[in-house]
Give the backbone structure.
Amino acid sequence: MAEVKLSDQPSMHAEVDYGNARFEISNAIEDQTGWSGTAADGTQVILRFERVECLDNMSGEKFEAKAVLAAAGKEYHGCGRFRTN
């Protein structure tokens, strides 16, 4: 799970490996394909997305984007959505 909070200083929160690894990035940097930043422990975290339909293999639910989170030498592939509020 990854969440980006947009504000004057965008931040990112990510949990991977069923919550066993968590990353907080207080100054996420946005570019054309996602966000990136450095967690307090020095881990570089990159969240990329592509606005194409994505089907979650476990739930069968359709999402509006494919996402890849890279952190601690691993990549996590999944689906995502964009909040409007």
About this structure: The mean pLDDT is 87.
